[in-house]
Amino acid sequence: MRRYFFRLFCGLIVILSLASITFGWAVNRSQVLTSLTWRILQEWHYSPRGLDDQFSQDTFALYLESLDPDKRFFTKADLEKLQEYEQAIDDEIQEGSSRLVELSSSLLSKRIQEVQAMAGEILAEPFDYFSDEDLEIDAKKRDYTNDTGELRELWRKMLKYQTILTYLDLAATGEEEVGRANLEVIDKEKEAQAREKVAKNLRSILERLLEDSREEAFHRYLNAVTKSFDPHTTYLTPEKKEDFDIEMRGTLEGIGALLQEEGEYIKIVEIIPGGAAWRQGELKPGDLILQVAQGEGEEAVDLYNMRVTEAVRYIRGKKGTEVRLTVKKPDGQIVTIPIIRDIVVLEESYARQALLSPARTGEETAKRFGYIYLPSFYRDFADLDGRSAAMDLRKILEQINGEEVDGVILDLRNNGGGSLDDALKIAGFFIHSGPLLQAKGREKTNAFWDSEKGVIYNGPLLVLVNSFTASGAEILAAALQDYDRAVIAGNRTFGKGSIQTILDLDHFLPLDLRGLKPLGSMKLTIQQFYRVTGEPIQYHGVVPDITLPDPYGYIEAGERTLKHTLPEERLASLNYSKWETPADLRMVQTKSSRRVAVNKSFQQINEYVEKVNKERLETRQSLHLAKIHRQQQKRKNELKQFEEAQASVEIFLEVSTLTGDNALPEEKLREWYDQIRKDVIIGEAVQILEDLLAASY
């Protein structure tokens, strides 16, 4: 792999150095990025494709969808102009041109400005709130409008719908919802307030869309190129690469505050305990950040109407540097707060552990189970000695062994993957030895083996998964299932059976083009992975041994819902030895199935998911005030009943801290323990473990 990468590296530098000769154009940043991206895709992507008309059509469709996903700006006339490039993107890449990006940016900007004018006129007067008309809210079922007249009508309906929702919210009085009388006579003052609020929000949205630079449109175009190969190959701007790194390592350099947009301002939502802002003491939740300066005497940057993603670029910075925030306090006082930046540790992104005991009366000795929540396979790739998921799991399992628990629950729900190395190491903590994974690249297939010496934990093990368990988490769950080492419970996983690597594009620049830095990075699919049995995870995911009702069953998720996914394949099985004490699954499955069938909470989950799925099929939205109110009340009552029913769940679990530091602040730790006590799926997992103990251990 290293030799292949070196060959690619040298070849790309030569290509870029000769780019102007090869293609006949003067080198600029966009052209270098396009050429570099295409060459990397051709040389190193797992499944390269040709530079042809089919590639152009696929890329065009992805690009168009990224520009106007809801079909609320472009008309069919615009589409006809853009379609001149539908089969010409391959030619543009060879020529080093970007006429499609230029044209689409110009057309979109023009339409946004027209919508600004339309919206101002539409919202200047009250709507007819009692006319019986409707709006198709599913853009997939809508065509592009024929002309600006139809575009105006589409926006009239969308704005009417938003105004009605806002009016109903404003008209709700005290503890009582909108009464029947309020639906027959419009409150003129609240109606005007509703239109003004909708207009204000829309102005902010449209102004920001207009601010989107030509460069940002080009980035969308570049991602359309990469995603035509597969949905997980993406271009990362330098800013998005920074966010990716923060997510992977669980730390950042900044002040330690959670921010959100509040109208035109940036609002402090939470101060992270132990962080720089927490230690300084003056910044509080509810403060609005008006300006940011990089130290005393430096010019301040106004954050008014700025995206939060852009604002954090000014607030984050190197450890030890000063940032000065001018904030407006809830009482109206305006103060400037100096804060020295530091390392912010995002403890909630790390593994957590607890001790669970069924609290049942009449039992002499209650069982004790270790519970481990693993949100991702995090790792700081820039620090070989830095914190990692495998390192934390090893410590937690050693703590669990010291507690002499009767079993362990490893919760991989919503774990989207991360470091492959950590996923494989953690799998090795539970088995003696053997292969864990097969990975097929363009040139050959490799087997990844357990590199850990011995078994850290050898007791009963249950793994929880759901439809958002993906990638590395699927590798871990599949390996433990294939070895009969664990019982997998929950729902079919995401089905992402591919492996990506991150390439820093700056490394490929020759000396004479170093002025173009930073170019960003590419997340590139280089392999597909398979179970030790040779079965694919791609599309199929991991099917649990015990299926449980899914609270998120109404959300479309999984590889099968994405475009341009890699095809599934099968490989030959590897030789491996299964765990010596497999569970009697049939008995355990039967008992769980019987409990789930009579469990009121699980019944409510199934009923709620069924209702939501049924409502999602009804995409024609009435624009009659009373009908919308009835619809909103029905949904609100159903959600309230569901949430209250789930909140009243008592699964009779005692939750306590394992020996060792859980790292979460005390208040958040209590909240997390309360969530565990109310989680009916964790409650069923405990009972499954008890069944396993009775059946096999």
Set down the secondary structure blueprint.
Blueprint: H1 2-17, H2 19-23, H3 29-44, H4 53-67, H5 76-82, H6 89-95, H7 99-122, E1 134-136, H8 148-171, H9 180-184, H10 188-211, H11 214-227, E2 234-236, H12 238-249, E3 251-254, E4 257-262, E5 265-271, H13 276-280, E6 288-293, E7 301-302, H14 308-315, E8 322-328, E9 334-340, E10 342-345, E11 352-358, E12 369-373, H15 389-403, E13 407-411, H16 420-428, E14 435-440, E15 445-449, E16 461-465, H17 472-482, E17 487-490, E18 498-504, E19 521-530, E20 546-547, H18 585-598, H19 600-616, E21 620-622, H20 625-647, E22 653-656, H21 666-678, H22 680-695
Parallel strand pairs: 12-13, 13-16, 16-17, 17-20
Antiparallel strand pairs: 1-21, 2-19, 3-10, 4-5, 5-6, 6-7, 6-8, 8-9, 11-12, 11-22, 14-15, 14-19, 18-19
pLDDT averaged over residues = 88
Write out the CATH superfamily name of the largest domain. 2-enoyl-CoA Hydratase, Chain A, domain 1
* CATH C-level label of the largest domain: Alpha Beta
Helix content: 40-55%
Low-pLDDT residue intervals, each spanning 5 or more residues: 1-26
Broad structural category? alpha+beta
Q: What summary fits the major beta sheet? A: 7 strands, mixed
Based on CA atoms alone, the radius of gyration comes out at: 28 Å
Written account of the structure:
- With 697 residues, this protein is of the alpha+beta class.
- The chain folds into three domains: 49-228, no CATH class; 251-345, Pdz3 Domain, CATH 2.30.42; 347-695, 2-enoyl-CoA Hydratase, Chain A, domain 1 (Alpha-Beta Complex), CATH 3.90.226.10.
- Strands 20-17-16-13-12-11-22 form a seven-stranded mixed beta sheet, with helices on both faces.
- Helix 3 (29-44) runs parallel beside helix 11 (214-227).
- The longest helix has 24 residues, at 99-122.
- The radius of gyration is 28 Å and the shape is globular.
- Residues 1-26 have low confidence and may be disordered.
